[in-house]
Amino acid sequence: MPDIWGIAAIYAKLILYVGLAGSVGLVIIRAVFADLVSPISDRMRVQAVLLAGLALAASVLGFMLRGAALTGGADGMTDPEILGLLWQTPVGDVLVYRMAGAVLIIIGVFIPLSGQWIVLAGGLITLWTFAQIGHVPELETTGVRVLLLLHLLGIAFWIGVLGPLRALSRRPEHIASAATLGHRFGQAASVIVPGLILAGLLMAWLLLGDLRALVATGYGQTLLIKLVLVGAILSLAAANKLRFVPAMQAGDDKAAHHLARSIEIETAVILLVLAATATLTSVLTLPN
Amino acid sequence: MKRLATLALISTLATSAFAHSRVDTTTPENGAVIADVPAEISFNFAADIRLTRVDMTHQDHPSVRLDLGDETSFDRVFTLPLQGMGEGIYGIEWRGLGVDGHAMQGEFTFTVD
User: Fold this and answer.
1) What integer pLDDT is reported at residue A100 of this predicted model?
2) Which pLDDT does position A1 carry in this prediction?
3) pLDDT at residue B19, as a whole number
4) Distance of alpha carbon A104 from alpha carbon B20, whole angstroms
5) DSSP H helical segments within chain A, as ranges?
């Protein structure tokens, strides 16, 4: 079991994932499907800012928690010597990039039109930090780092659609927009999701190196939990795409209610996947 | 649903493998039984590390923080003086920072009998 600082670090990482994927995703969805989400566009902007703020706070908290992990007490979170030491490592560099990226996202959201490119730049900078430290960069292959970045962008796109799709499908006057959004997202997802899965499996294989490690090590077991949860999400997504969205397009109002409920469950499972990922990247060592 | 999610979250987090501890050897060795209290303990790490905290526990005494002295740079080998507390089981718990920024920790025990 990781100690209390390890567990706190997992939660800080989880909040960082939610804030970052949520804010970047919302902005991408708002730009790509502008015509469909216009009724809730202002709300999405506020949500994107709040989520970027959450990512900023979680980045700082995560850095301070590493200080606590170094001393074994809360004093490490504010110990200038310990934090100064950390600052000189790649962890310090990553904190700077994550803070700068989150600030760019927040600024970009308030600038019309060209702002979305600032947000995208901020999002890319922040997402790229995950390719700078951690297990994947240890592989020292640029191709895999780019793969990780694309994997993260795909996830952000997916997470970004959940809120708007749910909000629209709960408003009877916007069910047609919700149906079209669901349909067009489904079309994009049918290309993006297989790519996401392939990238994820390839990285998992490179990191594990051996199928036996999947059951024999804590890292492998957590990865297995993640894969099972991802399987559950895919089933929900398939139900949304093949059943609820077509029914909504045919004018079935009840299907919109089912879709909203399905998205809520999907969000809960995605949180679990992110928690499993935060565990993999925060406290578990690679099998080899 | 919420309860289910909480349960699943907790079980996801309750994993057994531990973080990034790559100590190669220690003196005394983990689990060693020795006749006299050693004047010092040493760590030999697989990669460079900066020790940030070392605590010693003894069965009859509360935990004591060991003075790192000059051993405050990135290195593989560290030697710290030890104040003897008589016979019994000693536990050494260490924490340190890897060059890559990873927090590392570990522990070892030895018995003076």
Assistant:
1) 97
2) 66
3) 44
4) 33
5) 4-32, 34-37, 41-71, 80-87, 90-109, 115-128, 135-138, 142-169, 175-208, 213-216, 218-239, 245-249, 253-282
Chain B contact residues (CB < 8 Å to A): 1-2, 5, 8-9, 12-21, 50, 52-53, 55, 93, 95-101, 103, 105
Residues A44/A63, Cβ–Cβ less than 8 Å: no
**Cα distances (angstroms) measured from residue A288 to each of A139, A221, A277, B20:** 12, 14, 18, 12
- The per-residue pLDDT for range A181-215, each reduced to its tens digit, is 999 999 999 999 999 999 999 988 888 888 888 88
Q: b vs e for B51-76, b when ≥16 Cβ sit within 10 Å of the residue's Cβ?
A: bbbbebbbeeeeeeebeeeebeeeee
Q: Where are the domains of chain A?
A: 4-283
- Check CB contact under 8 Å for B1 and A265: yes
- Domain B23-112 bears CATH identifier 3.40.50.2000: no
Contact at CB, A91 and B101, closer than 8 angstroms: yes
- The distance of A127 to chain B (nearest Cα, Å) reads 18
pLDDT of residue A251: 87
Q: What is the pTM of this model?
A: 0.87
With contacts defined as CB-CB under 8 Å, which chain A residues touch B13?
7, 10, 275, 279
* Span of A96-100, A118-122, A216-220 with lowest mean pLDDT: A216-220
Nearest by CB: B103 against A69, A218, A268: A69
Amino acid at A191: V
Q: Mean of the per-residue pLDDT values for chain A?
A: 92
